[in-house]
């Protein structure tokens, strides 16, 4: 077990990072542009949407990550720069160049992210204005987490410290996302900075593994977006001995990165559009991890389960129907607990206090535990309830 | 093109069939039990839920269909006899035997279907009472379509006639289902009777193919159920020359069966829980039919698309994001029409009258046409909008 400590801070807490935020006039009054800067070129790893309709900045950032080095991430909200054709790509590249010029960086070390409305071109005069107002003096690093939001109600940020290679290493994460949240990175932007020293290929390997069990295990409405991106910058300024494969430090770093990603993922699920509750589904006793994760995610994504939990109804029938729908094997021996109350044993209903469990379902966090008794692998997924407010937000929002 | 005529009638309209319905006291006052009887043993074909948690009657009916011959279908609503273990299977078999005794049939020629609450045992005294009240004199054949309903708001029935093998052949269909409707047969019961003469293996082959493009292409909330079943009885009483493979009659019979199934499927989608609109999505220009159908179904099942249509918002961004999410190939040249208004050409937004299109989206049927320009295969799917009422129905319904 890696000993890690949560500290107060923000995305600029790891050594050698600064962040800033400003109002580029894309939104009315609110902060709508942010930047993360590393004092030195950093190893960069990234994971992107699997949506075939990927946005211009996603296409651009794939080339940055392929280069292995980055020193800055510039983000705007309000406009996604998605479904914008050639012009969109030109604008993303222009944003990249403007930021590089402003901070005297190599343009190919600048990642560009956008989130917001699909199908509109970036107003480049406003982008230029915003960039001109950004500073590298850590003036408004707390504002970054706000500048990247769209329909989110709360800021989502976490900082952990851990001792690795004889030094204190800090890992900070920030993200946005509340609608269109499903697997595979959905209108979800996540940024992680760390002062750990680690080679890029290993960083990418760890990130890809961690994403599978964290960000890719949340679902709000089953839709994925065109812009989803998670980027990690590791600038080595902690002075730790380089983290290499098959060492305790490797395990420790992976654990802290997983903790950051899991915390952020749960914050996104809890802030799902219209959500009143965070739902966590743990599936154990599966023959393989992939099935366990898939079943957990299918349960937490079921509209019938989500509405039942909104209504505080211990409707276990909907849970086991969801299991049966996707399980790639027979499930004759399911044990099901809702809020720690046993409701099903050997796939057969057991007596439980309906009124008492309904009361427990009014809590802000609902936990469903499924034991399949068919192996020793497990998986967890997170989501939220489906409410009137979700329908209102998405029916009244006009494109 | 097969010439077919819709006629007024019910599931007992084909020659040699009768139907009845009664109140077995499973529901309060309403009809809750129905039977379909053929005068002679009929060829039987069936398609069942793919949910691994299949209900007792599904397990039983698979053996009936495997036998190839059936003469009766007994259906109860209110209780699904699902997740009921050994006792549930014993009760399904007892229901089968009671009906066989009542009408002097071979028990293995009796199919049994149940729909309703999961996890409760059938009260066999009430089942016996209901069966004792059923008659074979066609007394209440119109009541059958009502007796099988659960949360449905309307009865769903259709009868077509077509000339095949020198005789008029009648095909009648009836179904129920409004929630938990997704692919692969979801709390959906469908029954089709026909007086056509056709051998069982061919009937099963045609049914399996037709189901893929009709019932399996509707989605209400993405969940499938434990009990879904479609059964076809063909008793040969029309006196037509037997329908054999690779003939015009084969094509004609398949066309009329498809018309019956498509009509029923659309009725289910339009009556989805809380629905105010039927949504039809046509995908053309795909390299293969499976992809076309999958993309169509994913669009029509997207919560974001469903809420946008509830809100009469021509939010094409959500449609193309849904396409990109599941398309197994690149989609650089999408042409998108909503209610026949072009909104996207070569995957790039075109100007359209937002207010006018929003008005058109207030109609009861919304059609979305997607041309992928990547082949010549097509697929269609049907669904409904996602409304406050859906959340209300599923949050307030208590298990």
Automatic annotation (TrEMBL), chains A, B:
Organism: Pseudolactococcus insecticola
Annotated site (Cleavage): 186-187
Subcellular location: Cytoplasm
Keywords: Acyltransferase, Amino-acid biosynthesis, Arginine biosynthesis, Autocatalytic cleavage, Cytoplasm, Multifunctional enzyme, Transferase
Annotated family: Belongs to the ArgJ family.
Catalytic activity: L-glutamate + acetyl-CoA = N-acetyl-L-glutamate + CoA + H(+); N(2)-acetyl-L-ornithine + L-glutamate = N-acetyl-L-glutamate + L-ornithine
HAMAP family, alphabetized: ArgJ (MF_01106)
Site (Involved in the stabilization of negative charge on the oxyanion by the formation of the oxyanion hole): 115-116
Coiled-coil regions, chain positions: none
Active site per database record: 187 (nucleophile)
Function: Catalyzes two activities which are involved in the cyclic version of arginine biosynthesis: the synthesis of N-acetylglutamate from glutamate and acetyl-CoA as the acetyl donor, and of ornithine by transacetylation between N(2)-acetylornithine and glutamate.
Name assigned to this protein: Arginine biosynthesis bifunctional protein ArgJ
Upper taxonomic lineage: Bacteria, Bacillati, Bacillota, Bacilli, Lactobacillales
